[in-house]
## 1
Amino acid sequence: MGNNLWKDTWLMTVRNIKTTLRNPFSFIPNLIISAFFLLVYEGGLSGISQLPTFEGANYLAFILPVSIVSAAIGGAGGAGQSIVKDIENGFFSRLLLTPASRLAIVLGPIIAGMLQLVVQTLLIIGIAFLLGLEVVTGFGGILFVLLIAVGWGLAFAGYSAGVALRTGNAQAAQAGTFIFFPLIFLSTTFVPYDLIEAQWLKIAATINPTTYIFESMRTALIDGWVFWDLMQGVFAILIVCTITITFAAVSAKKAVSRG
Amino acid sequence: MNGKIVVEHLTKTFKKGNVQAVKDVSFEVEEGEFFAFLGPNGAGKSTTVQILTTLINATSGKAEVAGHDVIREPEKVRRYIGVALQETGVDPDLTGREMIELQANIFGFRKEEGKKRAQELLEIVQLTEAAERRIGNYSGGMRRRLDLALTLVNEPKILFLDEPTTGLDPSNRMAIWEELRRLNEEVGTTIFLTTQYLEEADSLAHRISIINDGEIVATGTPKELKAQIGNDLITLTLKDENQQAEAVEYLRGQMADVDVISRHNKVLIYVEEGTKQLLEVVRLFDQEGYEIEDIQLSSPTLDDIFLKITSEKKEGVRADGE
Ligand SMILES: Nc1ncnc2c1ncn2[C@@H]1O[C@H](COP(=O)(O)OP(=O)(O)OP(=O)(O)O)[C@@H](O)[C@H]1O
Ligand SMILES: [Mg+2]
């Protein structure tokens, strides 16, 4: 059955992309919200980048990671939503009744979700360039930012797919998003760490992995190739991905097994 | 590989709620046979289908489908069967044609072959006109027909259909009956169908098992079962309820070859030839002075059959105990 894995994964992925495109309302709101971060906060808060802590950095480059992470979570969340939809429509059972590779049945929506993420992230970066973004590390830096977005998206895709497979319930999968999304705001979202005044928010930002994602993206966009600063995001991704992908794999195994 | 189903002592207990959904069920379906599982809500029909089609594992017992064990060789079983579960399994965002082509590709058809197969099947289930529309806009009957087409993609040796006509209007139901008959007679497909309708099992199946509360309570050809049950049912109530027990005894004495059952204030009489025996009952009661308040002649429903079979069982137990 090994050679079927590729073919089946391909079929499942194409099918998921097709159905996502046919439901524009599954991604347009998230894209608008993500673009909103860029446009509104760049317009409204960019004055604070005059503060010395910013060391002359461009606020657009500072806020861009927030917008990207928001888009990434929206895109990757599509994986869980597709799975829930299939379970609710009985289509998931129909797939289990065919000789299709069990792994492909679960991988298809996850890969499609990741592709959705890449497209959304590129769109956001494109908008940022239109607004006048300048990146110190150039093309390589953009690629790094994209990779971090994919990694963080994968962590969330694992989580959302896991919840979907475990519950088969749209509300529960939706509720899952509400755990990752607020993490965006309990972080160095709008101002650097040193400017955060509330002690609780400082603590939240320190334990919140999203902070390290933001900071490594900002390093690439603003500071340049500072190895350990860049790696903090990579480590955060490795740790969170290990947890969520394991969760997804265990849930998937349960969902396709015959208890 | 063969087109047979062999089930031995199958039991399924759901941990959730500790429900024994299937209790020590055994039966065999021959290659090319049309077999029906007839039973009311919650009888264990869907659970049996899910076990036989590799979706869930049995708690104990053994099942072979198409010559392969459903637990040890599920992949092989899946190649040779077509399954329409009770709930249709389709993606509402695809068109009917795309849905069938996808199913064909999963089963290993190449692109062009898959397209050809989809066209054939769309014609068979009369969905060519709706083929380019999204399934989300299909009516219930159209979805059922599409679901049936999907089960046929791999030219299965054995078809499992869980209540394929429940909720359909008569014309859709007829269309599905026609197609199932054709598959069974012309193609030689073995069919395992579940239904709540006696009429459906009667008109389609070679053999019927009646399942109730997880247990098979009777098996036979429609003719055998009917002979056991009676073709027609006379239901009557007496003016004076106090006479009922006496009247039932009297009738049993007079009409030895019919089954007479007393339920609440009604007397049920299972007979072979309705009108003739109805007149006889009226005549006998008239003679003895039992005044009839109301009398009706009908075909027995599934309910009546269960009542009869379960009451026979009880009587059997009583007889054994004495
Ligand atoms: N996944 C499950 N978990 C717990 N109990 C279940 C599950 N599936 C079915 N049951 C129980 O098992 C019994 C048999 O259910 P089943 O669905 O097999 O009946 P059925 O004959 O198909 O009924 P219907 O005509 O309503 O479809 C019922 O009591 C049902 O509540
Ligand atoms: Mg059922």
## 2
Amino acid sequence: MKRMIEFELNGQQVTAEVDGGDLLLSVLRDQFDLYGVKESCGAGECGACTVIIDGRAVTSCLYPAMEAEGRSVTTIEGLAQPDGTLHPIQESFIEKGAVQCGFCTPGNVLSAKALLDKNPDPSEQEIRTAIAGNLCRCTGYHQIVEAISHAAGRKS
Amino acid sequence: MKNIEYFKPTTIDQALRVKQEMGREACYIAGGTDVLVLAREKKLDCRALISLRRIPELAGISLQDDVLHLGPATTLTDILENGEVARELPILHDAVQVMGSTQMRNMATVGGNVMTAASSGDTLGPLLCLDAVCRLVSPGGERRVPMDEMFVGPRTTAAEPDELLAGLEIPLPAAGGAISSGAFFKLTRRAAMDLALINVAVQLWVNPDRATIAKARLAAGVAAPTPVRLKQTEEELVGAPVAEATKEQVAIRAIGRECRLRDSDRCSAWYREEMLRVLIPRAAALALERMGIAV
Ligand SMILES: Cc1cc2nc3c(=O)[nH]c(=O)nc-3n(C[C@H](O)[C@H](O)[C@H](O)COP(=O)(O)OP(=O)(O)OC[C@H]3O[C@@H](n4cnc5c(N)ncnc54)[C@H](O)[C@@H]3O)c2cc1C
Ligand code: FES
Ligand code: FES
């Protein structure tokens, strides 16, 4: 049953018409053209579809679109400044070679952002725990961990 | 899933009313990490979802008269970050820490874990060992079911279809000056994002002499079609020297009598048995260590 919902998306109030069975993942891609939200496993296992809702990283493939109502959703498209200046975490990912094919990158960057917003000076173990739900087939993770701790240093 | 109605009640009464009107056609959704996986596999047959995410009475953790009230819609992250759980219920803290990933813990709830009732459910052994009580409510009223009577079959609980899990009550193990602690171990193929090949929970109470066991709770997951308590062994440990709980012989006897291990595509019964022999004593030793008792 379709219904209009209102929520905050990357800092702007938006409305969307969604069905009770719609997943946030497909609404973000199909209605808002936010293709940085990737679908891979569709079952919570890979983290490619990660978005931040009210400060916490969640997998949008297991998140009912209806639940976004009244909440604040951040996707990778919401990180850079309007003039295109990248977020420090994005800069660090590039600098440290943490991006190869790039498919996992939005999810990893958002998991990193949710972590650093809450804990600006995480240990390596805390970083690894924060991205344990984000699979990467390319980098071997080392560069991603390095990029996140580099970004933490840069922000502080 | 298409053409699904989605209800967002804000009180338990509203949720029950919708469920009563829609019957089997409606199903409760908390974190959705089990429900939506089933839906994706087309194994969920319902026309409506009743969300439990916006019912304040169902979420949160509070302590009253030595009983910890754990709202079933509390997320695993909120449990993990709760100081009282970390201090008083390390057995539950251990379990939540190794469940899923950060994203899963941000969504998944403890009530969803209980109601899914998978033998591998990681909070179930700890809740069994803590003698938790489930408060089940329906339009007809409320009843209290001990955790030990909840798991009646594979993925089946004692709750009736019209009953909502409205609360979990956990008596603090160390209430009244009792000396107690617990521990949980889970064996997985990788460190995160994996269901247990086997899991073990142990809670021990020791006598004031700190040398003998006053009460014991042992539970295992994926060791039978439902999570199981090893009751015969629990009884035999009462009065025994503390070191008894950490003996491999005791574990071997418990596994033989009280588990029903099976081969699965994830791992063989033989391997499960070998690992239980290691993990039961290890969990007991850690529980004792947490009470400052070296064995
Ligand atoms: C990638 C991934 C990793 C996972 N890892 C683990 C793991 O390591 N360990 C583990 O144990 N599980 C794991 N799970 C399974 C799942 O996350 C847990 O079982 C979780 O606790 C379910 O909670 P939920 O709130 O998401 O449940 P939901 O999916 O919302 O609900 C599950 C069931 O419970 C019912 N229900 C929920 N709340 C209530 C209530 N209050 N009253 C009545 N019925 C209710 C629902 O109707 C449904 O039948 C994993 C799942 C995924 C997708
Ligand atoms: S697509 Fe959502 S976790 Fe893989
Ligand atoms: S960069 Fe290719 S999957 Fe991570």
